[in-house]
Design brief:
Number of strands: 8
Number of domains: 1
Shape: globular
Helix content: 10-25%
Length: 153
């Protein structure tokens, strides 16, 4: 009998062979930006240089998860990645270890049949903007003291 782990191992082997795999997506963690996405192309990635904003696929709880890299800590041999779904308020916990990453998302397939290359310059700029907007919002929230006091006239 083929188990879920067997299937994930086969998918991982296909990605690492260089051919990549196209997978159907489900879930809501990527929020409205993935609402019309039907599938993703997962390809191998160089773990020593995953840029911020890139969508990576990692294994958690017997399934593959595609989330955005928001920050990276550590060196080439043991990096830890802070990842987050675009539709989620908080980072994934615990942080993603290099060994958990199965590949990166190179393209999105939409329900209307169109495909968007995530390695194109416009897509990379958009990914950078998403990460920057998140960190800027976190920084500004440190100074938020709540609503201004109302003084009676």
């Amino acid at each position: 009998m083929i188990t879920n782990d067997d299937i994930l191992d086969l998918l991982s082997s296909a990605v690492q062979s260089g051919t990549g795999v196209r997978l159907a997506v489900s879930g809501r963690s990527m929020g409205p930006s993935f609402e019309s996405v039907s599938d993703i192309q997962v390809v191998p990635c160089d773990l020593s240089g995953i840029p911020l904003g890139r969508l990576v696929v990692f294994q958690r709880g017997g399934k593959w998860v595609a989330h955005r890299v928001m920050w990276r800590r550590g060196g080439e041999d043991g990096s830890v990645y802070l990842t987050k779904g675009d539709g989620l308020a908080k980072m994934d916990q615990p942080a993603v270890q290099s060994s958990e990453i199965k590949g990166m998302v190179s393209s999105l397939g939409y329900k209307d049949g169109s495909i968007v290359d995530l390695l194109s310059i416009p897509a990379r700029l958009q990914a950078g903007w998403i990460v920057s907007r998140y960190w800027l919002g976190r920084f500004i929230s440190r100074f938020d003291t709540g609503p201004a006091p109302v003084h009676p006239a």
